Structure formats: structure tokens, C-alpha cells
Structure prediction request, 404 residues.
Amino acid sequence: MPGAGVLGVMGGGQLGRMFVHAAQVLGYRVFVLEPDSASPAGVAADRHLQAPYADAQALADMGRLCQAVTTEFENVPAGALRQLAQASRVAPPANAVEICQHRAREKACFLQAGVPCAPHALLGHTDDVARPELANLLPGILKTASLGYDGKGQVLVNTLAELPAAWAQLGSVPCVLEQRLSLRCEISVIVARGADGQQVHLPVQQNLHRDGILALTQVPPPDVSPEQCAQALALAARLADTLAYVGVLCVEFFVLNDGSLVANEMAPRPHNSGHASIDACDVSQFDLQVRTLAGLPLVQPRQHSPAVMLNLLGDLWFAGADAQLQTPDWAAVLALPGVHLHLYGKTEARRGRKMGHLTVTAATAQQARSTAQEAARRLGLPRFWPDDAASGSSSEAAPPPSKP
Ligand code: ADP
Ligand code: MG
Prediction:
């Protein structure tokens, strides 16, 4: 119960940090297991157990000291969750995490649940890259079956002749080749499911990626119909049921040019695209993670403000003409109305590294866009919309931002 318990989290990244904050608001103490000595969640936690994720002694300590344990990243060893589950309540369950860790298992789960996904094939060994029928999937994207993130571990393949080199470039590890689809836009859905099967969800989020990394999320989604939103929510709910899921699950969808939805991937945890829920909803994705983990009541979140979330990557620290390390002009963006700045406490900025995010809330979606555009300008980021689309002289149904 709030105020009394100890919750554990596997992993010390920013998602763990925001979980720690949400849990501490309810009076929980939070212990983090993380090998790095200085991590975003480790420094915020009540206690940091510094050990490898699969360390048997550390897992025994976590199981003994915490009444319930969750994870903040999907690559936590499933065996570690199984060991923890012998001593403590664990959510999400190891089986579901294991499915999300592997693109082929994930796609098999989509199909089992009757959720459409991109045509694809698993390439398990060297001989597979010579299979002539793979031509049907080209042009396609070759993705490592596991450990990919932020567009890493992916290569575009246009012809069969390019396939062996692409496979070698990815380290000759098991890969999924999937057809490259023509996307109208991308959306994501975050659901929370309790141990009793009850589900609630956050509003559908529309996502824009730059260089394979999430750059911007808009809620509500400007280019998606209510029917498409309802369909995405229903498909995500079906996946959570199929996995007998407990916890917060994010499902990413492509919206194709004909308006149909295709599931891309899922994450067994809160997701970067759900960060706006902290400032724009009365229950955030991290509150939902705490509630599902602790077995507290789930109530349907309500979005009280339209929002735009901008990711703050390490590149911002090198934005000057001389590429010298600099601190972005936070005062300039905080001078804008409705700006919520979140920094993750990472000591070293690197290009492409997620250092923080900024959520703009406003009375209307157009106002949120216009302020987000101005914040991006003050930070030196490329604009996201043509200026008239952001500032309101055109309709709410402005064309989707072009994909870089
Ligand atoms: P990651 O684990 O890096 O998020 P994703 O599979 O989600 O990997 O791919 C990252 C991005 O690449 C997607 O959000 C989308 O923009 C693009 N992408 C991935 N797969 C496809 C595809 N089959 N067709 C078109 N675009 C794709
Ligand atoms: Mg993705």
C-alpha cells in the first residue's frame, strides 16, 4: 500500500527515473538494480543496488527487500525476472518480456492475436540470405531480431544482391527482413492491464521520427480519425490480453496510405511516446506502472490539455557553429507558456543520446504546436511544420509533417 511498501525496478535509465518519481509521490520507497555507478534512476532511488542484472545475489536481495519488482527496459534477462518472481511479485511477467525482446516472436504474437503486421521473414543463418522468395519483401528493412533501438541495428535493403552484405553489416546475427511500407504516419498506444485483467489506456499518440529516433509526439493525433484511434486501442487491448499482460504496454502502429493499421513493435514498459502523459493527463504512464505493479485500482486516465512532446537529444549540447560543448538555453524555452522541461540527469551529452524531453501543454492543439515550434527554434532544432501550420492560420487538419 502507498506509504508503506518498497518497489523495485530493474534498470537505471530515464524510464526508471520517472517510475521512481511517480512511486515516491505515493510514498513508496524504490530500489533500483543497475550496474552503472551513476544512472538517472539510481541517483533518484532510495537505494541503488549496483550489480549486473543477472547477479544471483543482487536478485536475491531485490526479491527479499522489495514487495514488487518491475523493469524499465525490455532487454532485462528473462531469467532474472523468473528468479525474482520466486520471491516477489513481478510485473510485467517474464514470458511477455521475452516475446517483446525478439522481433520474430513479437510478430508471431501479433499474428496469433489477429493483429496485422508487415510481411516479413526470419533470417536465422547464413543460407537464409540466399532464399529467392525474399525478393517479395524488397525493398525492405533488415533488422536485428534483438537488441535494436532508436533505429540502430537496421539496414535498408533494395535488392537480393545487397542482402548478404547487409546481413554481415549487422554482425551475421538472427534478423527479421520486413517489407518497407509506405507510411502516412505513425502512432502508439499505451495500455495498462491489472492482474485481474482490467485495462485502461492513454489517448492515442502520433509520433514523428528523425534519423530513426523519436523526435516529436502529438496528443491528440492530428492526422488520425476517431475510428482509427478506436481500432488501434482495440488491437492494443487484444495484445495485452493475449500476453496475459500485467503492467504498462506500448504498441507502435504504422498508419498506411490506405488508412489501415499495421503493428510495428511493442515495448513491455512505459515508452518515450507516452511522456506527455506526465503533464497532459491526470494519470501518467508511470502512475499506471506503479498502480499495476502494486495492485492498486486502475482508473481511466483523462487528458486535460492538448500536448506536444519534443525529445532533447545530446546533439543540442553541440549545436553551436564551433560544435563546442554548451548548455542549451533552458531559460529561453522556460520563458514560453506551458513548457515543462524534463532532464534526466545524465552527466555526459552524446549525439543521439536522449538527455531529456520537453512537453508543451496548451488550451488548443494548435497553440501547443505553435509554442513547440517556437521552443524548437529557440533550441536551434529544425522546424517541425511549415510556420503557418504551427501558428494557426491553417486548419487543425494540416498535412502531416514530411518524413525526413
Ligand atoms: P526501433 O526499435 O529502433 O524503434 P522500429 O522497428 O520501430 O525500431 O523502426 C524505427 C522506425 O523506422 C519506425 O518508427 C519507422 O519510422 C521506420 N520503419 C521501421 N520499419 C519500417 C517498415 N517496415 N516500413 C517503413 N518504415 C519502417
Ligand atoms: Mg520503434
Notes: The pocket of magnesium ion (ligand 2) is lined by residues 252, 265 (CB under 6 Å). The chain has three domains: 6-90, 119-179, 183-390. The mean pLDDT is 95. Residues 119-179 form a domain with the Dna Ligase; domain 1 fold (CATH 3.30.1490.20).
